[in-house]
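In the present case, backbone shapes were mapped to integers, as reproduced here:
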Amino acid sequence: MGTGLIIFVALVLIVAVWAVGAYNRFIKLRNRVKNGFAQIDVQLKRRYDLIPNLLETVKGYAAHEKETFQKVTDARAGAIAAGSIGAQSKAENMLTQALRSVFAVAENYPDLKANTNFLQLQEELGETEEKIRYARQFYNDIVMKFNTAIQTFPSVILARLFNFTEEEFFELDDTPDQREAPQIKF
């Protein structure tokens, strides 16, 4: 009976050590997911801050393009107000499309394309778009790790016990043109 008790206690300790390790891994991954989204948020806020300056620069040259500017302003407001990750993704897609229309308008104004302020804003926006792309990739990678960790056996049991739920990916729409950063070449 002594050997059986030792084996039982050893098994309980092994399971307990595994459970603590798995739980801590879930916590670390969940925190990395939150950090990943926070990094996206930082870059999106930078983008939101650049947009009014860009619009003001373009407005000076293309004052009659009010509808285009209003679409960008509305899309920016929608993106800032988005609550969930899914809503944020959708709003960002709309904002990207609206920004493309601004750059299309700028094509018609050679003086604007040569404006130093516009060129600087264009470069900053391009850099920001690249940082957003990288932050989205990092976020989606960590979401995949987290979701895999809470869905695989035997950790799925512990995940359900402690109410760990899947995180949502930051996805773009399925249209191929929306899977690219806005083209800002002039």
User: Anything to note?
Assistant: The chain has one domain: 2-179. The radius of gyration is 24 Å. The chain has a mean pLDDT of 86. The first helix runs from residue 2 to 59.
